[in-house]
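Reply to dn_fold:

You asked what the input looked like. This is it:
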Amino acid sequence: MTEQAKEEKSWQDNLSDWLISIIIAVVLAFAIRTFIVEPY
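and this is what came back:
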């Protein structure tokens, strides 16, 4: 692999890691708000 290909792959991996983390955080926040905060 060339240096450019390695950089591109790591950039895509980094972006996908961030997106997965953000999606999980949003889903958890929604679930906590819906099932724990709203009933009170």
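The chain has a mean pLDDT of 84.
Hope that clears it up.
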